[in-house]
Amino acid sequence: MKLTIKEIAGLAGVSQSTVSKIINNYTDVGPTTKAKVLRVIEEHSYRPTYAAQSLAKKATKVIGVIYAGEINANFNHPFFVEVVNAFKKNIGAEGYDLLFFSNEKFHKKDENYLERCQHYNVDGCFIIGGEKVEPSVYDLDQSSIPCVGIDIVLTGPRSAHLMTDNEQVASQAAEHFYLLGRRSTGFIGGQPHSTISNERKEAFLHTARVYGMKVMDEWILEGDFFEASGYHSMKRLLEQPVLPEAVFAASDAMALGAMRAMRDAGLAPAEIAVIGCDDIPAARFVDPPLTTLRQDKEKIGKMAAFMLEDLIHDRIQGSGVKIDPQLIIRSSCGTKPPSPAGEEPVL
User: How far apart are CA 343 and CA 234, in angstroms?
Assistant: First the structure.
């Protein structure tokens, strides 16, 4: 028979509040009283309910997870799934569970993330940035609930955000094309309201022009970071009378779609050099393997977990952190040079 705190208190001859203090490791209980209560607890194999512990500690150990935006990453996005897995592993090691919020009704009725978070009494929120982000996300950001965002800028009093350094991503792509002798280039990005896409586009075009590379307006196209948009964007580009020697796609998924369009049009592999961004698993196995800017997904997820817990406990103030990318050279820009020791083989 499972005992209650009231029954434990009666058996030990103390108040319920004293039992609660001992269970939750308060220090203002005498050693004799504490020993007596612990003996009763051990004899009856008592374990406090999770709800009781949460109430006593004023913490639920629950983190809300939000995929923000009318166009969002969903659970199967090859980049964000690795980030979320790393976050889950590291925040879980600190005793937290995850609660995923749906936004399916946000564009049909007046929904509110802040009210939902307060209803479930979450300790903090992990926000994955998308496109056309709901205003309610920024209301949550400006509240007292600790938040950490990925690919979304948060400025609230208890908020932080992380993202890969998009200027480095784009400038390294343009520089690699230049070093390969490619002197004209196009770009496939996200929608005009996408902050991530715009940062990569502006930095890429600036660096390309610094190196004297030709860029035509007809070679700058918009997608949505997914494969199909890369495919259709490249098909439109291939209809132009003059083609660029290289194309930088703002995501690996769009780069893979673009390469499929080139193949369907009868172009030889790397006839137009292609670079993507993310280094999703499929990038290694497409033919030819995709040169890309690797985002350190494990590091981003781990840092997000550590920063959110520090925000919850008021150990840090909100800030923005940029993670350096890494150029991974494969064969989609032409013959791949010898691999440095330790890089995965090209399959």
Answer: 29
Tell me how crowded residue 241 is: count the other CB atoms within 10 A of its CB.
5
Q: Which of 110-124, 253-267, 269-283, 294-308 has the lowest mean pLDDT?
A: 110-124
For the chain, counts of helices (H) and of strands (E)? 12, 12
> CA dihedral defined by 235, 238, 244, 246, rounded to 10 degrees?
40
Q: Provide the CA 18 distance to its chain's centre, in angstroms.
A: 43
**CA angle centred on 73, ends 203 and 276, rounded to 5°:** 40
62-163+297-324 topology per CATH = Rossmann fold (3.40.50)
The pTM of this model reads 0.78
Q: Are strands 97-101 and 124-128 parallel, antiparallel or unpaired?
A: unpaired
Q: How many CA atoms lie within 13 A of 207 on its CB side?
A: 24
**How many other C-beta atoms can be found within 10 angstroms of the C-beta atom of residue 310?**
15
What's the distance, CA 289 to chain centroid?
A: 24
> Which structure tokens are listed for 324?
């350096």
According to CATH, the superfamily of the domain at 5-57 is lambda repressor-like DNA-binding domains (1.10.260.40)
> Taking the CA atoms of the chain, what radius of gyration do you get in angstroms?
26
